[in-house]
Amino acid sequence: MRWSFANLRLECRRAVRISANFQPVMTCRIQDMKRTSIGAIFAFALFLALPLFGQPAHAAGPHLDKVLDIQKGLQETIARVAPSFVRVGGGSGVLISEDGYFLTNYHVAWRVFQRSETTTVTLPGGDNYIARRIGWDPLGDVTLCKLDLKEGEKVPYLEFGDSDSVEIGQMVIILGNPFSLSNDSKPTVSLGVISVKNRYVVSGKPGQTFLYGDAIQTDAALNPGNSGGPMISLDGKLLGLNGLIFPRHGFKVNTGIGYAVSINQIKLFMKLLKENDVCYHGTINGIEFDIKPVKREPGAYIKRVARGGSAEKAGFKPGDIIRKLNDTDITGPARFMWMLNRHPEKTTFEVTVKRGSEDVEITMTTDRIPWLNRKLPLPGQPHRPPVADPNRAVLGVAFDNTYTGAGARIRTVTPNSGAARAGIEAGDIIVKVGGKEVANLKAVIASIKGKKAGDIVRMTVKRGEEEMTFDVELVKVSDLNKPKPEEEPEEEPEEEPEEEPEESPEGP
Questions:
Q1: Which of 14, 100, 184, 469 lies 20 to 30 Å from 345, alpha-carbon distance?
Q2: pLDDT in tens, 364-410
């Protein structure tokens, strides 16, 4: 029997009453014989709880039969989807077509493909296959690969689901290879619920930045080795690709907070993944939003538009309120940026803005979010950190590369640098260099390129609501590494480092 939970509605109400012999009795009222994932959770929990109450299994009568029916359906679904699992090195993957295409995480694939275009993967049952890398989405942490199959050979696979239609509390199945335990190539199964959808997550581990712009959060057990494995609905559809866990106190194990790349985001990149070696995500440069927490009508309020940036070229103006992006209502800046980031670069959108009392239509095309991952470089790049020229002139600051507003936001300032001596502080946003507006981080770096140590650069920064101007002396990288008396050497600064949150999600 092919057991489906689609469109099922089961309301399970537990009532525990103590009889004369202190045996608890549990009752369920079925309003609709169609079962939902929530009903399955409650019913399955009741089944597990029966022994705890000391009630013999045979005494449960028809209630136990219903629970066992749900359990059987769950087991049948797992048996049906398990053959789509792929063991990829110490991680996981999932087959998505009968001709051998499969998905895994970029941080999983990079390890096995870093020295070769092919690798060996294993399917349940122990059959080994040669797999080829087809396309990367490094920032989105997705890689498309393909098995080398014999002529006419077909493999089991999962159909794509609709991750936009999932509901909070919906039950999901997780397949994976936690801690490389699947030596027999059979996936480990865990169950959980969807905790949040459309979560915007930036993994800010130094040198290893991933953007899960449309993540599904779950409480299902995700551990190292689950990366790249599927998140599956109870009707056997692929909802997402598991990839990040939220560590606690430095321990990289299941904490009840895990993230999957949504399948609907992956769908937007599938054509590019098949046709291109590397894919990039979209954004818009040169726009700053007003994020004051005041009550006002929904929308993304534009505070500043950088001169010469793509936002100005598209037609955005300070004071505009972004109301719609295509057919999607925009409730705030986060919603607007989430929509841009989940799409590939060069995607065209129709934007509706409120300008005064009128609605204005703007057509915009997304810019590229650059690849800023040094620990996992792009294909063909050497796996080693760049060697800094000791005589290179630098400001002595580290930038926040997740900032997409106008200008460039400073994350840290090296204490003995020219920027520190001038009065630049962490959190300042550079808006002008040499009296000219700068649209983004790339423009800031370009403005000092070719200058020498000792040169003075006039910089205007925004600190809160105030703009301040400083004359900053450029210094050699080697000078920054010279410790002051009784001080430890400072770590070598970088012009484009990755942001590291206090506790950032990591790839399992």
A1: 100
A2: 999 988 765 555 544 444 434 344 456 778 888 888 766 777 888 88
Within a 13 Å sphere around the CA of 257, how many CA atoms are in the beta-carbon half? 10
Q: Which helix (H) or strand (E) is 420 found in, with range?
A: helix 418-422
What is the per-residue pLDDT for 111? 83
Average pLDDT of 171-197?
87
Q: How many residues belong to the chain? A: 508
E-strand ranges in 220-272 read 230-233, 238-245, 258-262
Token pair belonging to 16 = 């525990």
Distance, in Å, from the CA atom of 504 to the CA atom of 346, rounded to the nearest integer, reads 29
State the amino acid at position 421 in one-letter form: R
- The torsion defined by the Cα of 326, 272, 155 and 81, in degrees rounded to 10, comes to -40
Among 466, 469, 473, CA closest to 448: 473
Judge contact between 223 and 251, C-beta under 8 A: no
Local structure of residue 236 (DSSP, 8 states): S
pLDDT digits (tens, 9 = 90+) for 267-300: 999 999 998 778 889 999 888 898 876 778 899 9
Confirm if 188 and 175 have CB atoms less than 8 A apart.
yes
Distance CA 196, CA 212 (A): 13
